[in-house]
Amino acid sequence: MQQISKDYKKQKFDQVLPGGINEWPVVELSRNREAFIKEVAEESIRRIKAQNKSRDALIEEIETTVYREKLRIKRNPWAVDPPDEQKFLNSVKARLVDISNSDEEEEKNRILDQILSEFVIRYADEIAGNFKKSRYRMARSIVTFGFARLLNASRARGFWSIFSTQYTLQDKIHITGQVDQIRTLAKKGTIIMVPTHFSNLDSILIGWVINALGLPAFIYGAGLNLFNIKIFAYFMNSLGAYKVDRRKKNMLYLETLKTYSSMAIQKGCHSLFFPGGTRSRSGQIEKRLKLGLLSTAIEAQRINYQKGKRDELEKIFVVPVTLNYNFVLEAPSLIKQYLKLQGQERYYVENDEYSTSYKISAFLLKFFTKGSDISVSIGRAMDVLGNFVDDQGQSYDKSGRVIDTQEYFTHDGKIISSNPQREDEYTRMLSERIVEEYHKINKVFASHLVAFTAFVIFQRQFKKLDLYNLLRLPEEDLSIPYEEFKTAFESVLAKVHRMYNAGEIGVSPYLTGDVDKIINHGLKNVGMYHAKRPLIKTKRGDITTQDLNLLYYYHNRLSGYNLEKYV
Amino acid sequence: MSKELVGVIGAGSFGTAVSNILAKNVNVLLYARNPETFAEISKSRISAGQKLDDNVEVTNSLEDLPQQCNVLFPVIPSSSFKDMIKELAPHLRPYHMMIHGTKGLHLEYPEKRSHDFVLNKDCLFTMSELIRKETVVVRVGCMAGPNLASELSLGHPAATVIASPFTEVVAKGKSLLRSESFQVYGNSDLRGVELCGVLKNIIAIGSGILSGLGLGENSRGLLVSRGLVEMIYLGKALGGEISSFVGLAGIGDLVATTTSTNSRNYTLGHKIGKGATLDQALSEMDETAEGVNTIKIVKQLAESQGLKPLITDTLHKILFEDMTAEQGVNYLMRYQGNIDINFL
């Protein structure tokens, strides 16, 4: 495969830290895992107590936690859950009774502290990653070597080509954008990478990208559900994941999680959050981000300043990343869930299609043996307030004036104050900036554009129907004459190129040249492995769909750009 | 211990009144742009007809303010707000706090307009958004409410709302402004409160016209209540929260400005009701009536957004087209009355 565009970098990157793996903050962290957990637990307890000032409030908080945890165990148990959970909760309950029966103040406090500390340590221990450098090296070579073999075997001819080195993963996954900047900043500063989240594959993909760029391993929050699967658990543990359990919404857990993240960032661990919190169910780029973990970046920056870390290069840098796929394995069930949730808000049990190792292996095989490219766009680094930074870590405002980020945390430019409400507001501002950047660095694929165009035409054809009624139409009724489709497509395409020239969006190199070819490329790739294809050409040459929900899903990728009127 | 120094930008009647209120708690540095005004004020210690408190110092150099003060109160007409803020921007730092008292809007077209450009909400800036856009200052707020400058200067009891998403800005505004004759409330819906102050000026002009025509109190009651409904309708479409409109900055300010001859917008409307043209009325005014510009902006925006603000449209016809005030009233009265309240 030839280089398709000079924007697509296929090069080998050296490790940014020449001293090797032993210098990585994450290695340091895992070496002292026990001590770190203790540190996190102590800090979490301090914070929980600060928020529940009286003993009664604290007891109530714990009672709520016990109640919710019991409910969770009953309703939604997972394989990764520790077997002694029930026993632990019962013992807490018993001890809470002891407290209410006891007359001695000191005794009450002692029991309560004991319960709180047991809770928090359990949580911290569950959350904490288990990075092992030997395993990291191994996983890294399995991923790189294994995938490369698969690629070569499928693309080249003949059995022996399995040993060929003609293709590597970088032919499959194109990394574009601010690659040099992130490498420079990662040497001294702390990177918070915030990618969009469409597929469970993202976690592994991004792990590979980080390694391919020569960056030290990042710690990242991965859904605990993924650890249900042995093979995922293995990879993710070795790649530096810590665990986030979305089922646990109690305050004790959330506070411990945030403390863990904040303290790891303070220690200089590069971190990765999927700030959407969960995979985008609609297929849209995330519009609203979860603020919990994001706020830890701002908090950690403030604490670092309070500790006197003033070197610009030692700052915390937020780097938005978009992952662009032609095909999302989970799309059918994601969009179904989305429509269900939109239709009527209700509790539903999280289950997912990555439920067995077999399914994953089958998918990976498909993915690597057939040609569906993925692109990863690395955005420009920002400080925690969303101002762009240069390669020296210096922040600039929109007019190019230098900004001292520390001053956002002061009233007079000197004394740094901690103000949670202020930081909440900063978090919201940062999340808006991240969403803005997502839209700019998002890459339009031919497949997204055909899906978008076709769905908008269908909406036009059935103007009177709302979304739900439209989606209920039988697919046989839907068809667009090719010429009509092409005219509409050309018009949107022209607008997308204008937006690209204005720096408002990215485009895939396949989006230039002959329009028929672009359309064909798009049709071929959009949701290519689904049993029912979102978009196909009939024998007569018309455009039609086999699954309107899926078409809607892939169409959503380009919603929010006001492109509808160009169709 | 030396008192904190707080900056006020704009030595108009409201800027002066704000300075004097602040001066009860802190030292104030008041900026007057015009060199002659500055010389005049320095000599006479009288600004916009008000005696300056001893704690107020006057300056003619804009950059003195950000250099010496951490909190700034810009109180200038919206038409010169952008120029001022751009001049100020290089001297501003992220630690500055700004609480403005300007009840106007700014409309800005993108630099490059494509052929299919339509005016939309993104082109509309409240003053706090202008500050956010042009400077590094993030901790921004506004003060709004029934604050007729002439009454404030007499020390009559009054209150204001400080709105900001940052509680520290609200708290700071409170501690700076609060005195025995001045109450300060807080609100986190910055955009909503700004819109209250902006949109009520439209209704104030309408109320002035009614009084100029001598149409009495029933008609005013009608205008004020339908006016509030229109404010809420527009305010919601432009991103404010309904609750702010029934607060001090909404209904409180609306009542004050639609009844007081001390209100600039009301006075302007009154002249027009008496038969003056817009140009004549404007030439008789000392200070800006923000409502005129607001009507223009809201009209443009409403057209491109498919909004139908009845009162604003009619006032636009009276001010800028060839409808007379009487015709305007007739037109409104013939209009089919709708449901009284449909937003709660």
From TrEMBL, chain B:
Family (UniProt): Belongs to the NAD-dependent glycerol-3-phosphate dehydrogenase family.
Name the record gives this protein: Glycerol-3-phosphate dehydrogenase [NAD(P)+]
Role of this protein: Catalyzes the reduction of the glycolytic intermediate dihydroxyacetone phosphate (DHAP) to sn-glycerol 3-phosphate (G3P), the key precursor for phospholipid synthesis.
Lineage of the organism: Bacteria, Pseudomonadati, Bacteroidota, Cytophagia, Cytophagales
UniProt-listed NCBIfam families: PRK00094.1-2, PRK00094.1-4
Top class in the EC scheme: oxidoreductase
Compartments, record wording: Cytoplasm
Organism: Roseivirga spongicola
Enzyme Commission number(s) of this protein: 1.1.1.94
Recorded catalytic activity of this chain's protein: sn-glycerol 3-phosphate + NADP(+) = dihydroxyacetone phosphate + NADPH + H(+); sn-glycerol 3-phosphate + NAD(+) = dihydroxyacetone phosphate + NADH + H(+)
Keyword Transcription regulation: no
